[in-house]
Recover the amino acids of this structure.
């Protein structure tokens, strides 16, 4: 979506897995953009400080071993006044946690088994990630430790949270 909207500049993609970088490469070949694929962890971004106007982390903070360090690293690579957009799954804190938990534990694996046409698939592991995820307020608080939060929104009963912050 970002590549579709970019008019100019360079797009950097960071991932620790070669397979994900190759998948991104295949999907982005059609765009006439300068794209750099960087292998690395969010907790140790292998790029210089004060480099980016915008950092987007979409459904990836939940996979970090040290989420606080990852946010500190995203701040480090942002230019002064740069924006962080963080979107991820969160555990609702509004009484809907039980409903979302059941959905993640039973419905998502069932639907993904049907879609993948096999019992074992990557979506079956989502629940183990989900139980360790932040609530929306925990996510906002973690970002506030490093950056100035402009706004945040929750979606789908609080199962997803978007945080926008500036350096």
């Amino acid at each position: 979506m970002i590549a579709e909207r970019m008019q100019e500049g360079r797009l950097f993609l960071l991932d620790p897995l070669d397979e994900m970088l190759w998948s991104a490469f295949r999907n982005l070949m059609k765009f006439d953009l300068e794209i750099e694929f960087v292998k690395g962890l969010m907790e140790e971004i292998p790029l210089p400080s004060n480099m980016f106007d915008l950092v987007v982390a979409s459904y990836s903070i939940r996979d970090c071993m040290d989420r606080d360090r990852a946010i500190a690293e995203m701040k480090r690579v942002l230019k002064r006044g740069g924006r962080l957009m963080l979107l991820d799954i969160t555990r609702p804190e509004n009484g809907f946690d039980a409903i979302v938990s059941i959905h993640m534990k039973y419905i998502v694996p069932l639907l993904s088994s049907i879609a993948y046409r096999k019992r074992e698939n990557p979506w079956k592991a989502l629940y183990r990630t989900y139980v360790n995820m932040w609530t929306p307020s925990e996510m906002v608080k973690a970002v506030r430790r490093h950056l100035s939060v402009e706004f945040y929104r929750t979606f789908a009963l609080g199962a997803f949270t978007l945080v926008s912050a500036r350096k």
